[in-house]
Amino acid sequence: MVDPLFAQLSTLAASLALLFGLLLLWRRNLGSYVDAFQSQSVVISLLFCVVGYFGEDPQLYGVALLFVALKVWLMPRYLRKMQQRFAVEREREPYLNVPSSLILAGVAVILAYALMRPVVALSNLPTRGGLPLALGLIFVGLLVILTRKKAFTQVIGFLILENGITVLALLGTYGIPLIVELGVFLDALMGFLVMQIFIYQLHGTFESIDVDQLNQLRH
Amino acid sequence: MTFLFLLLPPLIAALLAGLVRPTRAWVARANALLSLIPLGAALVFAAQAVAGQPAATFGPGELLRADSLSALLLLCVTGVAVLALFLGPNLGPDSHYDAEQLRRYQIFVNLFIGAMLLAVSANNVGVMWVAIEATTLSSALIIPLSLNKASVEASWKYILIGSTGIALAFAGTVLAYFDFVSLVGPIANALNWPVLLGNAHALHPEVIRLAFIFLLVGYGTKAGLAPMHTWLPDAHAEAPAPLSALMSGVLLAVAIYAVLRWKAVVDALLGPAFTNNLLIGLGLLSMVIAAFSLVIQRNYKRMLAYSSIEHTGLICLGLGLGPAGIFAALLLLICHSAAKSMLFLLAGGILQRYQSTSIASVSGLLKAMPWTGGLFATALLALLGLPPFGMFVAELALLKAGFAQDAPWLMAAVLLLLSVAFVSLVRHLNQLLYGPVPAGVAVGESFSWRSALFCLNLGGLTVLGLTLPAPLMILLNQIVGIVTK
Amino acid sequence: MSILLDFAQGVLALALAPGLVGLVRWFKARLQNRRGAAPWQPYFELIKLFGKDGVVSNNASWLFRAAPYVVFGSTLAVAFLIPTIFAPQALGGVGDLLAVVYLLLLGTFCLALAGLDPGTAFGGMGASREMTIAAIAEPTLALAIFGLALEAGSTNLGQIVAQTLGNPALAVTPGHLMAFAALFIVTLAETGRLPVDNPATHLELTMVHEAMILEYSGRYLALIEWAAGLKLLIFFALLSNLFVPWGLAVVLTPVSLLVGVAVFIVKLAFLAGVVALLETRVAKLRLFRVPELLSLSFVLALLSVISSFVLR
Description:
The complex is a heterotrimer.
Chain A (H helix, E strand, L loop, with lengths): L1 H25 L3 H25 L4 H27 L12 H18 L1 H6 L8 H17 L3 H23 L4 H29 L13
Helix pairs in contact in A: 1-2, 1-6, 1-7, 2-3, 2-7, 3-8, 4-6, 6-7, 7-8
Chain B lengths: L1 H18 L5 H10 L1 H15 L5 E3 L5 E3 L1 H20 L11 H23 L3 H18 L6 H36 L8 H7 L5 H19 L7 H8 L2 H30 L2 H23 L4 H20 L2 H33 L10 H4 L1 H15 L5 H15 L3 H26 L15 H18 L3 H14 L2
Antiparallel strand pairs in B: 1-2
Helix pairs in contact in B: 1-2, 1-3, 1-5, 3-4, 3-20, 4-5, 4-11, 4-14, 5-6, 5-11, 6-7, 6-11, 7-9, 7-10, 8-11, 9-11, 10-11, 10-13, 11-13, 11-14, 12-13, 12-18, 13-14, 13-18, 14-16, 14-17, 14-19, 14-20, 16-18, 16-19, 17-19
Chain C lengths: L1 H30 L9 H11 L10 H20 L15 H20 L4 H32 L4 H10 L7 H17 L18 H4 L5 H26 L10 H28 L8 H21 L2
């Protein structure tokens, strides 16, 4: 039976992606964040292949390859280089402490399930079970951006937000039109490079990548 | 064909600036001249629309399309781009930026303008999204043109909040695409706006409601709607003057354009009530936050930025007041683009002379720089809605629309907030204009071609205020027709 | 007949418990390149302790003397209720998931009170630390098994086991896997293993469970140590039999019962090896970091409940 296997695999992959996202709220050192992001990207590229195989869309294999090149190889490489520069920095005291952020993330996933109920009810794709998990991943990414102090963590939070949207598009519609997909990849790459430049500038100007230091501009 | 004249010149200008190393003065002049070509193309599109011709399309799968709404926004973008590229006082020979910074500025400001033009002329909402994200990236790179703590902080907030907002807008796009595909199947042109609009009545309400909330939050972040506005005062204040003019004048307009396109689709399915309520709510919140922040401002560039937030709120409020409200909102959009861009460019000149952005250190503007001071004062009064300028007519139209929609208390609140902003801005203006000139500031200014261009701009605003030219009237009515079909 | 078998199952668990503790210690010793005591050393320790007098502080009250019996009794009661060799049917009407959780909590609570009772500094410190850990671990335990219960449609542990036996594909759903991870972390927390608590230390900086029982001696200590071993066995039994129930006797024939005993011992030994390996590899977490680990397990349990709830 092909359908249940497809559904199970896609839900399993989406859950793994969400769990790797939760790692960002749990761990404190920057290296583990890069590992979590890389593992999550590996899982998502496997998900691309699964959907491409069961959904009979060979284009998705190409997209998976592009995804691997960009998010499993290129971005983690730059991120690790950056992280070695700022190896001393860890998330010592985030704006929201770890247990509270984890519990808030759990609540956010419940909210995602509630919000996506009409969407899941509408869809007749076998991958619809993973849709709330994708929205949950988006919320977790937002939570990381809002509650973490280091600019580096905020960038990785943004990257997993994008991953969440990718999973949403993948599970909901088996991917988006190719030209938009290419544009999105280009934007993701450019955005990442720009953020990288800014973190180096931040470090150069403020002697730290702690966002708490950004209090020059008030009112 | 005209599309090539629209989109290629900024790319060529960016390429030119990139290739010439170190940058020379003639590159800046060439860029300025190149910016006239898109203006011509925009005028052509507007004329075609007014004449009643069907929307021009171009590219495989009708990638680019210019209907009346696009034509209006194209006019705004290219107009302000011309102003910014011709009149950037900080980028003349006496500016304090070095050659490398100037070169970086030339490359990215042209890419920025090109991205905005693409966003407004794209037919595919996915490509529109890509272009708006590109505007975030290209403008973010030149906000910290001179690296200091304030500009780095501003640019970091801008890129993080802007990109997050845009990502959420993409999530909304995906949800809408999902609904469309589950209905019609993955056809090639599924994300084309006319196709979406045509099939909107058959989509599913709950999904589209969720999608619109994501889209409003996402594009609203770029437009400066509260509560996602926190990046705006910092970014617009720390950017170099011409970039602030472009960002405040037209980037906010482009974001509102995106919201309006999606509003048309959602309203075709759910009726206008849902989006109207959301837009009025967020618009009012933005106006409240902006009006009360204006009271305590100490930096004249941040003051102008908060005024932008207030006007974004006002425009969104107008969009939620039915067809007459949309008409008024579009008029407000045009007048705001014209006036705000001028104000930021003049503010750049003031910064260059006084070497400070705090209101307390600037005084005696009328004595030290009579032309700049006079033009600044006039433009600010035009922005505040004084007759005989266009903003007065636009605000009056908004109030009329509000009363027609049976919302007298809302209009009373709007009037109250507008007067709070008025009083604060005029108070700050008085501090700037009068009083003794501080020591160390040169006195005197001669009338130059720059001031002449600004006078021309003000003249345009006056014309809008005294009489609404017939072509513009036709264009605006067409747009209202498209959006409320 | 089946009541007798249930009873025998509980007695077997009681008999195996000290051996399990010894086995974990033996594995750890071997992994650390020591010879270590034999795995049946704890039996000799218990015999020794039962023969000695219990010394009780002057400041202790009746609670101090009663607590070991309460702890031992409640833990033994749980041993009767959980599936070790087969899913208990006769006692199924008496005990289910909630009974198990509450009985375990009763034991923890009494032990904490007993730690406070003599009025020593170590006891109070151990009790407060234990309560911090238990506050998050107990709900997680309930939630983790509740996710499974939702799928089975009942909180009866026998029913849960039957559900997984009847539908093998369920064992690898994300809900089950997350519940397993959550329950594993809770096991480490509740039984006082690294990285939450070091069972081999008596340093003030690192004690939790040992601090509470520091004042005990003689037969009281014997009961408490036995109860601790029994608790470890109970958690291992829950981990292995709720999630990997193959090997449990489904019909009550002598052959299947013997197979059940053998499989159970194998599962216990495997989990003992895993825990020993983990204890050797991982350093103890600083106390303020323990809630972080436990809240992660709580969220995992929550997610498994949500996914079971939605997919039901």
